[in-house]
C-alpha cells in the first residue's frame, strides 16, 4: 500500500475539493438535450447499421465508465468487447434463439462481468487502509459486492456510450453458465448481462412504453 500521508495528503485533498468547486462553478447542470440523449428520450435498440466502432472509441468508453462510483472503489466489473466473427459465434451459443440476430447484427457486444477476486486489487484501488480482511473468506459478501457494483458499472457504460453518440441495447436472454464456460473457464470472472453497442437502425423501433409516475413509484419519508 502506498497511500499519501501528512502534508502531501492534505495538499491532494485540498486540490480535489477545489477541483470539484471549479467543476460546479463551470457546469451547474447538463443541458436538457444531453439529458434527452442519455436517458429521457434514449431508446434500447436491437437493430443496427453496419457502421463500425473503432477500438479507440471503446477505450474512451471504458475510461469514462470507470469514473463512476463503486463501494470502496472496488471496481469489480470486467468487460469483454466481442466484435470478431469468431467471438460472436462463441457468444451465440449462449443466446436464446430470438436474441441471436440482435447480437450478431451489433458491431460490438459487451459481456458485462465481475471478478470475484476484485478485492485482491484493493491495495491499489483503496490504498488508504487495507480492507481485504472485510472480504477474505466471506463469500456471500464478496458475491453481493461484486454483483451490485458490477451491475452499477454496466449501467455507467450504457450512459457513457449514449453520451459518446453510440446506441445501446442490453440483453439478459442468455445462459450465464454457457458464457462463463466459453469465456471465463478457469478464472474468477462471472458474467452478468450483455450490452449491444453500435449505431442503431431506427426502423426497428416501436413507440416508447409507459413509465410509472412519481406518486406510484416514489415516497418521501
Give the SSE string.
Answer: HHHEHHEHHEHEH
Strand element count: 4
Alpha plus pi helix count = 9
Uncertain segments are: none
Give the mean pLDDT.
97
Overall shape: globular
Strand content: 5-15%
Q: Could you tell me how far the N terminus lies from the C terminus, measured between alpha carbons in angstroms?
A: 41 Å
Helical percentage? 40-55%
Radius of gyration: 20 Å
**Could you give a short account of the major beta sheet?**
4 strands, antiparallel
Would you tell me the structural class of the helices and strands? alpha+beta
**How are the strands of the largest sheet arranged?**
1-2-4-3
Describe the structure concisely for a colleague.
By secondary structure, the chain is an alpha+beta fold.
Notes on the protein architecture:
The protein is of the alpha+beta class. Helices cover 45% and strands 13% of the residues. It is built from nine helices and four strands. Strands 1-2-4-3 form a four-stranded antiparallel sheet, with helices on both faces. Helix 2 crosses helix 7 and helix 3 packs across helix 7. The chain is globular, with a radius of gyration of 20 Å. The protein starts with 5 loop residues before the first helix and ends with a helix. The mean pLDDT is 97.
Task: Provide the descriptors you would attach to this structure in a database record.
alpha+beta; single chain; 221 residues; four-stranded antiparallel sheet; globular
Amino acid at each position: 500500500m502506498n497511500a499519501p500521508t501528512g502534508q502531501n495528503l492534505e495538499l491532494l485533498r485540498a486540490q480535489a475539493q477545489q477541483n470539484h468547486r471549479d467543476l460546479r462553478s463551470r457546469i451547474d447542470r447538463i443541458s436538457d438535450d444531453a439529458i434527452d440523449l442519455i436517458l429521457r428520450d434514449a431508446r434500447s435498440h436491437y437493430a443496427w447499421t453496419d457502421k463500425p466502432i473503432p477500438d479507440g472509441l471503446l477505450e474512451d468508453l471504458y475510461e469514462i465508465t470507470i469514473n463512476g462510483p463503486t463501494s470502496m472503489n472496488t471496481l469489480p466489473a470486467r468487460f469483454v468487447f466481442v466484435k470478431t466473427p469468431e467471438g460472436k459465434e462463441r457468444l451465440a451459443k449462449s443466446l436464446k434463439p430470438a436474441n441471436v440476430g440482435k447480437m450478431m447484427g451489433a458491431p460490438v457486444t459487451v459481456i458485462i462481468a465481475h471478478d470475484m477476486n476484485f478485492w485482491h486489487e484493493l491495495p491499489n484501488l483503496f490504498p488508504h487502509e487495507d480492507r481485504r480482511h472485510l472480504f477474505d473468506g466471506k463469500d456471500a459478501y464478496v458475491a453481493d459486492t461484486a454483483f451490485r457494483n458490477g451491475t452499477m458499472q454496466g449501467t455507467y457504460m450504457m450512459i457513457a456510450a449514449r453520451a459518446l453518440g453510440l446506441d445501446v441495447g442490453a440483453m439478459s436472454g442468455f445462459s450465464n453458465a454457457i458464457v462463463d464456460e466459453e469465456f471465463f473457464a478457469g478464472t474468477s470472472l462471472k458474467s452478468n448481462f450483455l450490452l449491444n453497442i453500435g449505431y442503431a437502425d431506427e426502423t426497428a423501433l416501436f413507440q416508447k412504453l409507459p413509465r410509472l409516475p412519481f406518486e406510484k413509484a416514489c415516497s418521501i419519508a
